[in-house]
Amino acid sequence: MSKLILIPTPIGNLKDITLRAIDAIQSVDVLLAEDTRHTGKLLKHLKIEKKMLPYHAHNEHRLMESIVDKIKSKEIVGLVSDAGTPGISDPGFLLVRECVKAGVHIETLPGPTAFIPALVGSGLPCDKFYFEGFLPHKKGRQSRLKFLANLPCTIVLYESPHRLIKTLEQISDILGQDRKICIVRELTKIHESFHRGDVSTQLEYFKKVLPKGEIVIVIGGNGI
Ligand code: SAM
């Protein structure tokens, strides 16, 4: 049956690819990849040869219609991002919405994503949480943080290492220096680490030890 398959890929450790993800990659007629060179390395590791098409934030609007047409003409199309689950702070949503509109079948495979292991390992409540993803880089950043400050549940942010200090300073100003926080680095990789404490101790630490690698910030909710 023709369909769109959303295929999560490892966020570091290649052993995290699932058996279903491998089957799905093998089954598709074409694999849409955020960066075909990056995904090419994964395919090489899996010993799979597959036709790939670039699909990323800069061409997704332009390509959506033709991709839906491909699926309607009986092709199976797979979508991967560079790492983790497509659609989670990565391209995917627009295509899924277009497929839903067109009545095209969508299969979503469960698999690697950074925010779930970060949240679950943080030691902060994970029964209720709010996923923010990346904060806006400039405009709207403060107002997003003001909104997050009032949420009575755990908050999860994605952040790049070179913005971590600035973000921690803003979290300290707006959410308070005593707020519980966990900085999660390099999940599933050799230097994976969880830095748990309050905002002021983590800020002090990362001002001394320059932040490196990929980062998830998990923040305790207001009043929790
Ligand atoms: N689609 C991905 C997912 O499902 O998690 C997210 C892609 S987003 C462009 C990349 C961000 O995810 C990074 O800047 C970082 O915040 C987070 N991330 C991805 N891999 C990570 C890892 N191994 N350790 C910690 N954070 C990670």
Helix and strand run: EHEHEHEHEHEHEHEEHE
What bound compounds does this protein have? S-adenosylmethionine
Number of strands: 10
Give the low-pLDDT segments: none
How much strand content do the residues show?
Answer: 15-25%
CATH class of the largest domain: Alpha Beta
Helical segment tally?
Answer: 8
Q: Which strand order do you get reading across the main beta sheet?
A: 3-2-4-1-5
Q: State Rg.
A: 19 Å
Integer tally of domains: 2
Percent helix range: 25-40%
**Name given to the CATH architecture of the largest domain:** 3-Layer(aba) Sandwich
Mean pLDDT: 97
Question: Your description of this structure?
Answer:
By secondary structure, this protein is of the alpha/beta class. It folds into two domains: 3-108, Tetrapyrrole methylase, N-terminal domain (Cobalt-precorrin-4 Transmethylase, domain 1), CATH 3.40.1010.10; 115-219, Methyltransferase, Cobalt-precorrin-4 Transmethylase, Domain 2 (2-Layer Sandwich). Helices cover 36% and strands 21% of the residues. It is built from eight helices and ten strands. It has helices at residues 19-27, 36-46, 60-72, 93-102, 115-121, 141-149, 164-175, 199-208; strands spanning 3-6, 30-33, 52-54, 76-80, 106-108, 129-134, 154-159, 180-185, 193-198, 215-219. It has a five-stranded parallel sheet with strand order 3-2-4-1-5, sandwiched between helices. A five-stranded mixed sheet has the order 6-7-10-8-9. A hairpin with a 7-residue loop joins strand 8 (180-185) and strand 9 (193-198). The protein starts with a strand and ends in a 5-residue tail after the last strand. S-adenosylmethionine binds next to strand 7 and strand 10. The site of S-adenosylmethionine has 23 residues, from strand 7 and strand 10.
